[in-house]
Amino acid sequence: MTVRTTPPFRADHVGSLLRPPALLAARADHANGKISLEQLREIEDDAIREVVRMQRAAGLQSATDGEFRRTSWHMDFIYRLGGISKADEKIKVQFHNAEGDLEFTSAALHVDGPVRLPETIFAEDFTFLQSVVDDGVTPKLTIPSPSMVHYRGGRAALDPAVYPDEDQFWTDLSAAYAAQVAGVAALGCTYLQFDDTSFAYLNDPEQRALLSARGDDAEHQHLRYIKQVNAALANKPKGLTVTTHMCRGNFRSSWAASGGYDFVAEALFSELAVDGFFLEYDDARSGGFAPLRFVPPGKMVVLGLVTTKRGELENKDDLKRRIDEAAQYVPLDQLCLSPQCGFSSTVEGNVLTRDEQAAKLALIVETAAEVWGDAG
Description:
GO molecular function, one term: zinc ion binding
Distance between the termini: 10 Å
Keywords: Methyltransferase, Transferase
Helix content: 25-40%
Protein name: 5-methyltetrahydropteroyltriglutamate--homocysteine S-methyltransferase
Pfam families: Meth_synt_2
CATH architecture: Alpha-Beta Barrel
Shape: globular
InterPro entries: Met_Synth_C/arc, UROD/MetE-like_sf
Number of helices: 12
């Protein structure tokens, strides 16, 4: 079995991590004007140093800053793109769990100017992460995929005076992302992840119906998204690994969409120009492994078999059996293991403890070592 010294690693994780109470308190104090932005950043720095040590202690070869400086996994990035502003209306997303339903509400976005990249987004954050990881640990940056700028609002979010032709919006958006990719690579980033809910959501007939109702071409939307991600990566710098994580919603241990990867699988796995796919596979809601037959040689699949939505620890033998099942469709050497999603896609976090989070990461490392060997 091939030892992996480049990402994604045999034992890996998606990115977001539970915020410690002191950090949450500091964010509230800053919002209420009790501490300055500089004081908040110092507290964030300390929290990130600690969570990097936790990832190292778990045995991971990659580390993120836990997205500790963000409120949400995607909007903190999107609102920093030129030409995009917060809209007065609200985005309301229905989430579900075993106990019932809850609603996530955030400001919508409005594309009111040409989309551009004024500066490399999260540059300062990534530079700090680089400075605190140990030798042998790869710092990883996570950002929302280009499709997330479109999925929440669709054509209706575009000012027709700015973009009478939607194709020009896509050209500008991909160019902005290409500049972001080049910018983070220039900082020394070797591991970048595009986080995406659209590809997984589009497998759900109910989600496609919602898109059709607002006037979008739900049956072919994934093809447009693949095209634009590929355009953003057309000149990807040498030495930069780009993966994508596909999620069906992750808010306070709840989810928004269901369905296997069948609807998008053939085009997505065979055409998307990323180096690896982080896939949710923690329960029956994600479907079976058969869609993995479309994954071409050389592309890595990171199986998200360990749930972040509850604290109970998975059985190691069960994980190994599921890895064996996936290996019927894609070679074992192309597989890795991770949690199914982040632990805290929004600042609120999922319903488990930080000790349970650390135990799940350690379980992933231990299981991967037994399946693939001691390294990578």
